[in-house]
Every structure is written in C-alpha cells, then in structure tokens.
C-alpha cells in the first residue's frame, strides 16, 4: 500500500499528533515506524522494513564521497523508532520537532513509499513555489 493524501492535524500534547487513518493503514499492522529528518525542513516517516532496506543501500555506498556522507549524517543522526499508541497517536522527538519547526499543527502528506510531516505554512509555501 502506498502513502497518499494530504492531512492537517493538531497536536494533542507536547509533540503528540494523531496519524491519519490512511497513513496508519499504509504503515500496516506494526505499532512502530521510523521517523527522521527529511529534506526541505520536513520529517520523513517510513515503514521499518522500508527504512531498513533503504538504510542498507545507503550504508553500502562509499563514505568517501562527500554528498553521500552528508546524506548519511542527515538521515541517521536523527532517526528514531516511534511507537503508535492505542489511539493512533505518536510523539515526535524534540530534536525533530525543532528541525521541522513544528509546534501545534502539522500537514502530513503521502509521498508514495513514505510520508512527510510539515509545518503547515512551510508546506503551503512549498506548494505555491512548485505550482506551474
């Protein structure tokens, strides 16, 4: 199943938000997923199995190439296994909240093989920027 759609959510506590039903369905039956820094100052969420596959591929690449080393640092330094509670909520670690400038609202978007969590105004600006 693919991650699709755009959803606006409100934080229900310090760093805690609900995962929209369609995103939860795409995550499958697991109670955890991997959340890390994305690009464009957003967060990226992956099924653990997809994260492990991508991580192995990234690790196998040469660390002698600057761009690949920087990508590894960016993604691995902040990666966290996040647990989904019985109400379908999860807590975003503080380092990731700060990175994405998240405080009380978020835009969660499906991106096919993963989903992203954006600060809503930043997401709206990004959409305007790429609109033809």
UniProtKB/TrEMBL annotation:
Pfam families: MraZ. It is found in: Cytoplasm, Nucleoid. Gene3D superfamilies: Transcriptional regulator MraZ domain. InterPro entries: MraZ, MraZ_C, MraZ_dom, MraZ_N, MraZ_sf, SpoVT-AbrB_dom, SpoVT-AbrB_sf. Forms oligomers. One of its GO terms (molecular function) is DNA-binding transcription factor activity. PROSITE patterns: SPOVT_ABRB. One of its GO terms (biological process) is negative regulation of DNA-templated transcription initiation. Residues 79-122 form the SpoVT-AbrB domain. The gene is mraZ. One of its GO terms (cellular component) is nucleoid. Belongs to the MraZ family. Keywords: Cytoplasm, DNA-binding, Repeat, Transcription, Transcription regulation. This is Transcriptional regulator MraZ. Coiled coil: none annotated. HAMAP family: MraZ.
